[in-house]
From TrEMBL:
It comes from Halarchaeum grantii. It holds the Pfam family DUF7532. This is Uncharacterized protein. It comes from the Archaea.
Length: 125
């Protein structure tokens, strides 16, 4: 269920039917799945990517990453999962496609930040 009970009640009072609410929830769920699929494909298609992630062990403005895999799933409107690099990994707590060559992930521990990943460093400038 996408909307909590208070929101559902307010939307029903505003004139949306139960069926319309279900339609909205289904569409949002479909869009989240499409985003997860598109972001997963982005990582599958590129072995090396660049990011705007701040790293304590790198002074590069846009560090290079060797990506092992990106495993995403959806729960209602949320896109979550795990991103594995060559020597470490991080939880994904959100994702969106910004352009054909750039995606943005909301990363969990230890990063706790929104990070853009791109096919080239120029795409991040």
């Amino acid at each position: 269920m996408l909307f909590d009970q208070r929101t559902r009640t307010a939307l029903r009072e505003a004139g949306l039917s139960a069926e319309e609410l279900r339609d909205v929830e289904r569409e949002v769920t479909r869009e989240a799945r499409a985003t997860a699929d598109e972001v997963s494909a982005f990582f599958d298609e590129h072995e090396t990517l660049y990011s705007d992630m701040e790293q304590t062990h790198s002074n590069a403005a846009f560090p290079e990453h060797a990506v092992d895999y990106c495993d995403l799933f959806t729960h209602s409107q949320d896109v979550r999962g795990f991103l594995r690099f060559d020597s470490w990994g991080v939880y994904v707590e959100g994702a969106r496609v910004l352009a054909e060559e750039v995606v943005e992930l909301e990363l969990g521990q230890p990063v706790h930040d929104r990070v853009r990943f791109a096919t080239t460093r120029d795409a991040l400038e």
